[in-house]
Amino acid sequence: MTRYNAGLSEAKWQKIWQDRDTFTATEDPTRPKYYVLEMFPYPSGKIHMGHVRNYTQGDVVARYRRAKGFNVLHPMGWDAFGMPAENAAMEHNVHPAKWTYENIDHMRGQLKQMGLSLDWSREFATCDPDYYGQEQKMFLDFMDSDLVYRKESWVNWDPVDNTVLANEQVVDGCGWRSGAPVERRRLSQWFLKITDYADELNSALNDLDRWPEKVRTMQQNWIGRSEGLRLFFDIPGEDRLEVYTTRPDTIFGACGMAVAADHPLAEKLAQDNPDLQAFILECRAGGTTEEAMEKMEKKGFDTGLKAKSPFEDRDLPIYVANFVLMEYGTGAIFMSAAHDQRDLDFAHKYGLDVRTVIRPDGESDSFHVDKEAYVGPGTLFNSQWLDGLTIEAAKAEVIRRAEDGGFGKKTINFRLRDWGISRQRYWGCPIPVIHCDACGIVPVPKDQLPVKLPDDVSFDRPGNPLEHHPTWKHVDCPSCGAAARRETDTFDTFIDSSWYFARFCSPKSADPVDKAAADYWLPVDQYVGGVEHAILHLLYSRFFTRAMKKVDLLSVDEPFDGLFTQGMVCHETYQNAAGDWLFPADLTRNDAGVLVEKHNGAEVTVGRSIKMSKSKKNVVDPTEIIDQYGADTARWFMLSDSPPERDLEWTEEGVEGAWRFTQRLWRTVITGCDGLTAAADEPADFGKAAAALRRMTHVSIASVGKDIEDFHFNNCVAQIYKFANAISGFKPDRSDGDAYALREALTCLVQISAPMMPHLAEEMWQHMGYDGILTDAAWPVARPELMEQNTVTIAIQVKGKLRDTIDMAKDMDKAEVEKIALASEKIRQFVGDNPIRKVIVVPNKIVNIVI
Ligand code: ANZ
Ligand code: ZN
User: Fold this and answer.
1) 614 labeled binding residue
2) Could you say which of 377, 630, 733, 766 is the most buried, measured as most Cβ atoms within 10 Å of its Cβ?
3) What domains are defined for the chain?
4) Boundaries of each Methionyl/Valyl/Leucyl/Isoleucyl-tRNA synthetase anticodon-binding domain copy (predicted)?
5) The whole model's pTM is what?
């Protein structure tokens, strides 16, 4: 028997699928649709094992749904704008477009080798002018619909490279390239009004019941809805100060006020206070990331001003503090030292009162906070008319009195900020507006879109190449004709990935989307991707879907009905004596079986298994695996060992095991078919073994289908192993029943392994003589009546000792069971001539014969 040749067979079937346009999807309202999407890759150069895992999982779902009769859309594209292309331009002097499209060509080839059931006719890259031109058009629609605005805001500024930095480009408070400490600067930036949808984006999470709970929680925390009070404090001689608090119950514990460095009051006071001015500048150094804010030492500057507590005759000192953010709430707070750790540390540092106003149950009124703030539940005290109330009741009471007195307003606040989308970079989608001294901001007329990136740019100095370009930004104002300037900022690349799923519905449309096509395909039924995108990408896509609905491009609110987040692919790490990391491919085992470096035989230190990463070199190149073992082996291994949401440990042994199984499956089918002729019609009678095999067949169909639907691919793998063993163990006699059962089993084995190992399955299907390709065949139907266990194995005891076991029909009559038991040859030997005193029958289990 010939071995299965994965290399030949995979190329053959990939060509057949391609020639037949097997995976090209067309809208067909008469059929139910199923849209499967994996997060599209960034074209970094080559695919990695994380991609293989992600796309294999999606492909199993897509192929299964297709077999179940769905009209499946399973597209692929490229998230192609972003910094790495510009870095390549700077480091290797290659144009970002060339770098990007060459990477895409290479990676497309790699993905095609995996045998994914993708509709390549819909492919696009977000850097295609055709795509980003539509994005620009949509942005103009958003402008018309009041979803866009421009305002000054703080950015990370690299004072050496003279450029704005994205948060990711700030490493430990310094610019990633220059290494210079980052400053904050105010620049005019474009914003999308995601906060208009904050409440809805939050509440609609409850309906996303096909999303992982943890992702919904992360989004909820990010949106950060809180209910609290805006409370107004009078300051003699100044405007009243508005604070936002979620703990109005602690008002009698207030020890002082704090305002942000960018608060109007701080800015005003700084005008004739150089020390305060210096303090404000100090606050502005050190980047805008939340992490940076979290980490820094909490500092304040006493303004000398006092605010009046609204409920009692007490003055509260006002500080400018570096931990209060202007962008959150009102940019001002009252501090309650005893019930907030940050406030407590601040109070200790600056000698403010610590007034304890909440005591835990069981504590007396002498309870007081010293070093550790009390933030748990309890009862109010030291608080006049709040004394004795619970925290919740006290909050409500303070809110009521503040509103009645006209110095407060109950409010809902969100942590979510509007989305700043301006990037001072070249390799992104140009923002389609023009700045005219006479007319202000003028949108580029739609018939002049796309605003294309210029090709001739240089990266020889820091900053934005579009800004440095000699001619590109100089245009005439579309409105008055005077000399004007193009916007040189480009979009945050998260915009590109916020609507690509919609573009796939009609990738060639002359509008951002063809509404009929989008109405047919959306929402995405199953989205698969990494949990690292649990917050931003998914939230932005949810917002974009709503914004696109507002401008009448879409009809749905939510883009992704089902979401699955896959685990990572991990591998052991290796180091030589000098501590350098080593690639697994550069190692081998010596005669003693010890892992050594190939080139010098030196022993290596094996470290624990962690996520594959280039920096630790614990990576395995998918292409090498596919060349050596075939795509089906790689796919099978990806699915086999761990539940798909968990991390998977990549091992050589595991891959070899998967490869051996492809060979075994092949042998099982070839051997099984050898000389097998089975009637097309189901015979009336089946022997015991045939019935058992049929039960296995139908149980396998049902459980593998269910496990695919539930993303339990490792269980599918386990079931297919069991099923293949059962088939190998089946020795058919010459009866019609046996032949039929065997052929049925082999057919179904091939069919249910197809989503995981599509090439091998096609080859086996062809070998079995079926017409047409397996990928077009329907998923087999599991017949419930054949899945029932209708025999039981009964233990036969003589005087309490097990002497025989007999398979009998389930739920048989007791007298009948007794008769069969007594007729057994073995039992007759043990009973001999002894008179039978009693026979006890425990239904479906035991027969005990007492002699
Ligand atoms: C008084 C108070 C007493 C507070 C207490 C907390 C504990 P969340 O839940 O995140 O909404 N806060 C408000 N605006 C702020 C800003 N711009 N920068 C820094 N902190 C700010 O948190 C709301 C709480 O965070 C508010 O409630 C406020 O401090 C603080 F025992 O007010 B609290
Ligand atoms: Zn003008």
Assistant:
1) yes
2) 630
3) 28-133+497-566 (3.40.50.620), 146-196+419-493 (no CATH), 225-414 (3.90.740.10), 569-639 (2.20.28), 651-786 (1.10.730.10), 791-850 (3.10.20.590)
4) 695-815
5) 0.88
